[in-house]
Amino acid sequence: MPSTAPTREGSRNRSRNNGRSRTVAAGFLLPALLLLGALVVYPIGYSVQRSLFDRSGDSFVGLDNYLSLVTDDSLRTAVRNNLIWLVLAPAVATALGLVFAVLTERVRWGTAFKLVVFMPMAISMLAAGIIFRLVYEQDPDRGVANAVWVGVHDTFAESSGFPRARPLPVHPLKAAGGGAFVTEEPVRAGEPVRLPLIGVAPAQMPEEARPAREPAPAAGTVVGTAWLDFTRGGGGRPNAVDPAELGLAGLRIEAVRDGEVVARATAAADGTFTLPADRVDGAVLRLPASNFREQYNGVEWLGPSFVTPAVIGAYVWMWAGFAMVLIGAGLAAVPRELLEAARVDGANEWQVFRRITVPLLAPVLAVVLVTLMINVLKVFDLVFVIAPGSAQDDANVLALQLYRSSFGTDADLGIGSAIAVLLLLLVVPVMIFNIRRLRREARR
């Protein structure tokens, strides 16, 4: 009968070794566990406890601070904006990253393009916020976004040449409604017409403007002068063409009879214009409102209506490169023979992309999307820097409200702690989903 003593001795040795290994592992893990407890577990526990007390921290208020997140207007705005961020920003950044990753595989300069797109990741949120604060400047001469927008608008819509120009009471013009002006009396052939205006700064006059002059009457025509009735330094006479006064070059003039436009003219560089007498004699001249409407200054990107999409645009500019690099790495691992087989079978590029490339990239797209969802729940810097004070309430998000509630002029640490706990509760489901997905991937 074999002896069981060696077997028992081996079991004891293995147990002793396992215990020693656990002790060594615990010794190595202890510093990390202490740091984790001090920097993560304790702050979370304290925030939960502090959220149940009032502003001073002396009186227990239960869930009142959490109810304020629903009843307070600024807090409701922050929650709503966070939901907008959560839906739009990760989806747009991931979609752009996918498009960039697929397209850059087909061009020679794809590496250089990836470098340019990824470069914003090297910029801090604060620096990006300052950049886009200038990009979204309302003045088209300073803000790039409005400079482009105004340029496109003016390409398809006629711009005004003399905004705010108007006649004086002594001038032979009167308001005609809608911003237009008409002559007080019908015009006659052989009698020069005077169309004086004021309200245009000399520095804003057209570059081609020249000193105004009165043309000599000509047979079969009605002639006149449209000019800026203003002399620098004074000394000019109202309703008279003085030598130092400039013609309103480009001013549009219409002859109107019985409510219908019968002729049109445009003032020359010296303000002179000519109309056919056979159609104009006895009609009144009208300066249409298109001459005087305010110039288009673009979109108020940082106003209450567009500030949140504008800040999201800055975020996408920064993080689309991150999505592109991760998706590009996943795309490099896609078997090329599958793509070629689909093309041989007659699939076009869109079908290959939709039915093969995207399904194979689904795990990578999930990683990128979940990472960006966690990231946008913490966004603070961009909103704080880009949104001006007048629109910061409209662009408010939970992280910004957490800062304002905890460290603002009217600080309430109870509300601030409740927002912090809410942010944690929003992040936890996303993290659990990510962990489960990673475990499923590991089992395959």
Automatic annotation (TrEMBL):
Gene3D superfamilies: MetI-like. The chain crosses the membrane at residues 24-45, 83-103, 115-136, 314-335, 356-377, 413-435. Its main location: membrane. It is a multi-pass membrane protein. The keyword Transmembrane helix applies. It is found in: Cell membrane. Keywords: Cell membrane, Membrane, Transmembrane, Transmembrane helix, Transport. Signal peptide: none annotated. Residues 79-434 form the ABC transmembrane type-1 domain. The keyword Ion transport does not apply. InterPro entries: MetI-like, MetI-like_sf, UgpAE/MalFG_permease. Belongs to the binding-protein-dependent transport system permease family. PANTHER family: BLL4140 PROTEIN, DIACETYLCHITOBIOSE UPTAKE SYSTEM PERMEASE PROTEIN DASB. This is Sugar ABC transporter permease.
